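ZP: hey, is the 1-O-alpha-D-glucopyranosyl-D-fructose complex queued? I don't see it on the tracker
AM: it wasn't, my bad. submitting now with these inputs:
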Amino acid sequence: MMKKKWWHDKTAYQIYPKSFFDTDGDGIGDLPGIIEKLDYLKDLGVDIVWLSPIYRSPLADQGYDISDYYSIDPRFGTMEDMERLLAEAKKRNMYVVMDLVVNHCSDEHEWFRKACEDPEGEYGKFFYLRKLKKGSCGVQAGDSAEGRQAQYAVSSPDGYILPCNWRSYFGGPVWEKLPGHGDWFYLHVFHRKQPDLNWENPKLREEIYRMINWWLDKGLAGFRIDAIINIKKALPFRNYAPDRADGLCSIHRMLSDAEGIGAFLGELRDRTFAPHNAFTVGEVFNEKEEELPDFIGDDGYFSTMFDFAEAVWGSSPEGWHAAAQITPDDYRACLFSAQERVRDIGFLSNIIENHDEPRGVSRYIPEADLRGMDAALRLTAKKALATIYFFVRGLPWIYQGQEIGMENLPLHSIEEVDDIASRNAWEVMRGLGISSEDALRAIERNGRDNARTPFQWTAGHAAGFTTGTPWLQVNPNYRQINLEQQAADPASVFRHYRRMTALRRDPLYRETLVYGSFEPYLADDHNVIAYLRRSQTLTILVLSNYQREDRTLPLPADVRKVLLDNCTGSGSPAPLIQDGRVALTGYRTLVLELAQKSE
Ligand code: TEU
């Protein structure tokens, strides 16, 4: 039995500050806006709030490129605002975690500026810098290891042979010329304005720990930890067989070779998080199977980590145009395999979307279904998805706007797109000859702007997000989808989320919903997504007819009580339960308390 932790029975929420609520009319969300909305979040049933980065930044990657870890970017507010937010959250028994972005910093950080001044000095060693030579690439030097290395080598546009042929997550080689130098280059696995920090250097690690402790001493409850698996590179730098015509290979290929990240993560935990009993959630892709207990076990590197099984399903190394669209059965398989994988090792953090992903309702409800639905069925389907992910074992996260069923943003031209990942995907697809129409559709389905359009508070100007001009366009559906309208509608997605958080907190059911076992039900039944949560005293069944067609489904035991019905408030008749079966209309989803087996 895992050790009980203070955060296990909580509900968490991710705020993307730039698009949450703007109080000074500059079209950018800010800290005073978050403070103003704390009561809204409390009423929704939120306990833990993660803020995407608000540190000083040039916003080359929307704040995931930090130029000063110790200050708040003036666009979002001041350190006084931050301290006020911490105090106001505390008054409401809410917990604030910030984004910890330490695989890289901004190229405008003073460390990097000093590295440019003296690449061989102390700050040059905070990064991966290499003095390179010109030469010819692709030389065939036999099939020796060196030969293969040589044959995959790539060079910079001006002929310098690069230390490795890895491709940045945002496209192109991971090596960029060091500003002010002709033959010095620096590594960046993300954007060229995000130079990687050299975690092999203990002096760099000490600086990072000092900063983390400074923030934890301020009263932060913990951190969401950005891209952390990338801090351990497979060294020395080596080439891998290219996986595209650009001669480069995916970072994931290198990460599968990287060994020993635990030394860094264990030291990080022991020097910062553990002494503060901090809550931490790792953004971890590519972890190795055997590492799971080390990552999120009782004394793991992190308290929890996100389940990305559903988010990464169907992605293709070729590009966004080749990504497969997930079906309900695929979604169920991902959800269940993630639960099976973690079992009693620890707690996953469960999501249907975040600031890097498309809107969950546009991804996990089949596009054909969603398009053909009338408004009522659309609502039912959104609440079905909400119920299914919310009650699996682990910590449920709501991403801003998810609670009102915000949808993907329709696009008419690449000019509308802000996201650097989407713009890179556009170049890749167009370079492969994909039509601009198909490339734009692929960006609509996969782009990060989908989750970054302003929160839709009202049907008024700019959806009530700002009195000015929003930094990114508001989704044109804001008159149909906004909080003000949904708060007054008992059948709305918002009111359903509020019922879900209330059920999770209900003293009668909390123990079972938090610590109960997870047991798939009807796991092979096409378009049915159902599972049991069992404790010593209670059995709860989550049962979803996840399709448009009606279904009558068998029940594993007598029903004692309908705890939640995604058609509440919609005028639909109560579900017909008789002879051990339940009749469910399209996307009807129920949470049922069942008679215990012994009864
Ligand atoms: O993302 C890490 C990451 O690797 C994936 O989310 C994905 O590869 C990336 O979003 C590109 O599509 C984190 C942050 O969540 C993301 O917003 C940042 O862009 C990235 O790290 C760099 O800090």
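AM: back. DSSP finds 19 helices and 21 strands in the chain.
ZP: great, adding it to the tracker
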